[in-house]
Amino acid sequence: MGAAYKIPQLGVVLLVGLLASCASRPVRPPPPPAPVPAPAPAPTGKPEGREFRVDGPSSLLTIQVYKGGALSRAGHNHVIASHTLRGVAYVPDDPLRAGFDVHMKVDELVVDEEDLRQEAGPDFPPGVPEEARLGTKRNMLSEALLDAERYPEIVLQSEAMQRGPDGGLEAQVRVVVRDRAASVIVPLKYDLRGDELDVQGAIALKQTDLGLTPYSLFGGALRVQDEIKVRFRIVAHAVDSAAAPDASSPPR
Questions:
Q1: Which residues contact residue 212 at a Cβ distance below 8 angstroms, ignoring those fewer than 6 apart?
Q2: What's the rounded Cα separation, in Å, for the pair 216 and 184?
Q3: Which residues of 134-171 are buried (b: 16+ CB within 10 A; e: fewer)?
Q4: What values do phi and psi take at 11, rounded to 5?
């Protein structure tokens, strides 16, 4: 997802993922404008099963981005988070026929919350300066990286469900970032209790697989590692329950 750590006033993000540089100074010149808008999610046919709507405040997606290069000691690793996921899931009796369509607004991503850094472990010590966090967010949304003005959302849509080697559930997920789409396999754990659906998972991704170029400076002496780690917990409520979020808020 692009540069997101501080390296002498430079940094990174996504999300999603993403993604950004912590620098307050401008990042490298952006590429020419994309000739086409971001692709729409691929059609999956008529959804099957009971409909659930994502509860954004109860859900969380985090992206861990790591510094790299010979001068990496000057920088920070970063935790980027979304607390405002939107979307729907459809759950039939057969989980292999389930589906989902989740949207993440990039301008609502949050950089380096102290509690999330603490939960992420010793690679994410506290005390990232406010200037670095603001610079990361600003550059993350810039035209050179996520280009939030033209591509305000990252889309996560199920393409297929399958059983993994261990018998667990896996989702083939179409990830749309900017004007690029990629398919990734994500192991899932889910719990369905009455009107509430709880889905959790984690996956390591490469930014380049999503069509993004990790930030690099001085021939790679200051850079962002290509691999990022994405973790999520998505809580959703049945639309016919009192706890279901406002049906007008999530995208369809």
A1: 1, 2, 18, 19, 145, 177, 178
A2: 25
A3: ebbbbbbbbbbbbbbeebbbbbbbbeebeeeeeeebbb
A4: -160, -155
Residues 26/114, Cβ–Cβ less than 8 Å: no
pLDDT recorded at residue 34: 44
Question: Cβ distance 214 to 226 under 8 Å?
Answer: yes
Element (H, E) at 176: strand 169-177
Note the pLDDT tens digit of each residue in 11-25.
333 333 333 334 333
Q: How far apart are CA 196 and CA 200, in angstroms?
A: 13
CA 214 vs CA 4, 32, 134: distances in Å: 9, 18, 19
Q: How many CB atoms lie within 10 A of CB 21?
A: 34
Answer positive or negative: Cα dihedral of 137, 139, 142, 145.
negative
Q: Do the Cβ atoms of 163 and 169 come closer than 8 Å? A: yes
Report the half-sphere exposure of 1 (CA within 13 A, side-chain side).
38
Q: What is the pLDDT of residues 127-155, one digit of tens each?
A: 899 988 888 888 788 887 788 999 999 99
Q: What's this model's pTM, rounded to 2 decimal places?
A: 0.78
- 212 within 8 A of 41, measured Cβ to Cβ: no
| Residue 191 in this model has a pLDDT that exceeds 50 | yes
Say if CB 35 and CB 198 are below 8 A apart: no
Q: Is 65 exposed, middle or buried (0-12, 13-18, 19+ CB in 10 A)?
A: buried
**∠ Cα 244 120 214 (to 5°):** 95
Q: Do residues 170 and 159 make contact, with C-beta atoms less than 8 angstroms apart?
A: no
